[in-house]
Amino acid sequence: MHGEKHRSDRIGWLRASVLGANDGLISTSSLVVGVAAAEPERAAVLVAAVAGLVAGTLSMAAGEYVSVSSQADTEQADLVRERHELADSPEAERAELAGIYAGRGLDPELALAVADQLMAHDALGAHARDELGIHEATRARPLQAALASAASFAAGAAPPALLAAFIPSARLTPVVAASTLVLLLVLGGTAARLGGATIARGAARVAFWGAVAMACTAAVGKLFGAVV
């Protein structure tokens, strides 16, 4: 048998995981660098890092759950409506599905035959997939997205938080910045590899925006630290 391996079934958890890890690493590293630039005691930097880790983890989980739940609610509402239309107007739905297949290049007679067979097998599934664009592999899964996002954010935020705990204040900023850029390159490359994209481009774009975020935050911390 000819087997093919596709990546579309990873979309739900991959998107949330990449977003969470990227956000956790960049935001916490930027927070550490920004607070350290104001030259406070190391304890203040560590408290800021831990607070950022905890708050960010909970915020990512809540935000992802709410946003994906909204998507799931919309999908469910569309499916309920489609189920009612199939019950009330089966012929119109049959013609609609056949029209979709004809629009993709099938002869009208063949399109109608395909619509008949698919509707006989699973009418709602056929309309969900071909009319609404709802696929099982890409269905909204709020809990999965929330857990993946929270866990990945915590994992991304952990390295800069640990560095804030153990690296002397005088060396903290360059060490955090350098280690963050290396981790961002790895993260971007890994995400690109899993998603089937170009590894170098995926790594470069993540590292670039991470460097911009840390530089801007450090400038703000230096400015306000000098003013205060």
Question: What's the arrangement of secondary structure elements?
Answer:
Layout: H1 11-37, H2 42-88, H3 90-103, H4 108-130, H5 142-166, H6 169-195, H7 199-227
Helix pairs in contact: 1-2, 1-5, 1-6, 1-7, 2-3, 2-4, 2-5, 3-4, 5-6, 6-7
At a glance:
The protein has 228 residues and is an all-alpha fold. It has one domain (11-223).
- General form: elongated
Number of domains: 1
Summing up helix and strand content along with how strands pair, one would put the structural category as: mainly alpha
How much strand?
Answer: under 5%
User: Which blocks of ≥5 consecutive residues have pLDDT under 50?
Assistant: none
Number of helices: 7
Major sheet description: none
Structure notes:
The mean pLDDT is 84. The chain has one domain. The termini are far apart. It is built from seven helices and no strands. It is elongated and about 75 Å long. By secondary structure, the protein is an all-alpha fold. α1 (11-37) runs parallel beside α5 (142-166).
What labels describe this entry?
7 helices, elongated, 228 residues, mainly alpha
